[in-house]
Design brief:
With 432 residues, the chain is α/β, with parallel strands linked by helices. It is built from 14 helices and 17 strands. It has helices spanning 9-15, 22-25, 51-54, 63-74, 87-101, 117-132, 149-153, 158-162, 188-195, 223-235, 306-319, 324-346, 366-378, 403-431; strands spanning 30-34, 37-40, 45-48, 109-111, 137-140, 171-174, 206-209, 212-213, 219-220, 239-243, 267-270, 283-286, 350-355, 358-363, 381-382, 384-386, 392-395. The protein has a seven-stranded mixed β-sheet. Strands 1-2-3-15 form a four-stranded mixed β-sheet.
Length: 432
């Protein structure tokens, strides 16, 4: 039986859980998407500065990836394979090694832990504890690593942590780069408590870090800070885990976000855009000597998402056979940063930060960030807020967005910021 009805918000309000979030900020019923644009059931078009929270680095329904996927499905290629050996997985592994790992001098084994970022993080945390025999993990203020219990334990956001319903233990939060505005020497405190037998601080199994904290407010770690962290971990026999779920796959310019700092983490987590097409896929990368898993000791029913292997392979072949995409991402990132700088010059109470095509516009008045995104949506642009008080407008456009679309979106955002500030100052002017 086919149900024919006009879809609107009532359908979702009636049937779907109250936990839904993005749809509250973008009250439209989306139907189709191509490249950097989405279209709703009423034919309205929206430019996407969100890209599936970074899962669509190559845009919606990228034709190269779509063709590879359709061909695979039509020929009855394996869809679900657990961790069985399949042609699709083998071709992905060979391509990933040849075009991503080997050119960067990286010698990682690849684990498929389950199809989402939090699965990759859980595997990384479990492995660090198994290898070292220690329990504690160091995480950082304003970090976000996922919504399952282990990942939540190393996440900073209080609202998300409160959803756990149980104590989140065996982790210790430390200040991220510039948390104290440079007033505290970065790692002297960390090294001191590690060496002090009276500190009560247990030597950790690992440290987990994002090079750019997207959900935390687009907080960018300096290369020298990351190098200092990596050096300390190496000297103290602590495993360094870089969470590249959102910032990997070219988001900051290089394929891995840690490349700029010249460090080599012990473990790396990837998800979101590694599947290329928006299909679920996650990887936990680990140094070969850390591969101490027993067969089946960590697994997941959907860790063998073969259609995602196909689109991931197509994406790597298309976009990572040379450095053209990296160059474009850095150039577009500079365009966004310049637009944000112009806004900061025009309005008090604004600042900006970011790397590549993850950029944040921070408001001293958090409510203006939300108001800016609301106005932008009314003008046909999707952008979200981030940060502990939702005070940052965070841009994550598809890396493949055209220069024309990028300029169009930045113009909409500029107008939206102007209108948000104008509405905020209007009552004061009226009183005067």
């Amino acid at each position: 039986m086919t149900i024919e009805t006009a879809l609107d918000d009532r359908t979702f309000t009636k049937h779907e859980s109250e936990v839904r979030s993005y749809c509250r900020d973008w009250p439209a019923v989306f139907d189709t998407a191509q490249g950097s644009w989405l279209t709703d059931v009423d034919g309205n078009r929206y430019l996407d500065f969100f890209a599936g929270a970074g899962a669509l680095n190559y845009g919606h329904n990228n034709p190269v990836l779509k063709d590879a996927l359709v061909d695979y499905i039509v020929r009855d290629g394996i869809t679900h394979g657990l961790d069985m050996s399949t042609r699709a997985k083998g071709e992905f592994l060979e391509t990933f090694a040849a075009k991503i790992l080997e050119p960067r001098g990286l010698d990682y084994k690849v684990q498929f832990p389950g199809p989402t970022g939090t699965n990759a993080v859980e595997a990384a945390l479990k492995l660090a504890r198994k290898v070292t025999g220690r329990e504690a993990v160091i995480n950082f203020t304003n970090a976000f690593h996922g919504m399952t219990l282990g990942s939540l334990a190393v996440t900073g956001n209080a609202m998300k942590r409160n959803g756990a319903g149980v104590p989140l233990v065996h982790t210790t939060p430390m200040p991220f780069d510039n948390y104290f505005d440079g007033s505290v020497e970065d790692f002297a405190w960390f090294e001191r408590v590690l060496e002090d037998s009276g500190s009560g601080f247990n030597r950790p199994a690992g440290v987990i870090v994002e090079t750019v904290q997207g959900e935390g407010g687009v907080n960018v770690a300096r290369p020298e800070w990351l190098r200092g962290l990596a050096d300390l971990c190496k000297r103290k026999d602590i495993l360094l885990i870089v969470d590249d779920v959102q910032m990997g796959c070219g988001r900051t310019g290089e394929f891995f976000s840690f490349e700029e700092a010249g460090i080599v983490p012990d473990i790396v987590t990837l998800s979101k855009s590694i599947g290329g097409y928006g299909l679920p896929l996650a990887l936990t990368l680990l140094r070969p000597e850390l591969d101490v898993w027993e067969p089946g000791e960590h697994n997941g029913t959907f860790r063998g998402n073969n259609p995602a292997f196909v689109t991931a392979t197509a994406a790597i072949n298309k976009y990572w056979s040379d450095d053209a995409l990296s160059v474009q991402v850095k150039a577009k990132g500079m365009e966004i940063a310049q637009s944000f700088e112009d806004l900061c010059q025009r309005h008090d109470g604004l600042s900006h930060r970011g790397r590549g095509m993850v950029q944040g516009l921070a408001f001293d008045k958090p409510e203006l960030a939300g108001r800016t995104c609301e106005i932008a949506f009314s003008k046909g642009l999707l952008a979200e807020t981030s940060g502990p008080d939702s005070e940052v407008v965070k841009l994550l456009p598809p890396l493949t967005m055209s220069s024309e679309d990028l300029a169009h979106g930045l113009q909409i955002l500029s107008e939206s910021v102007d209108e948000a500030f104008a509405a905020d100052t209007a009552p004061e002017e009226a009183e005067a």
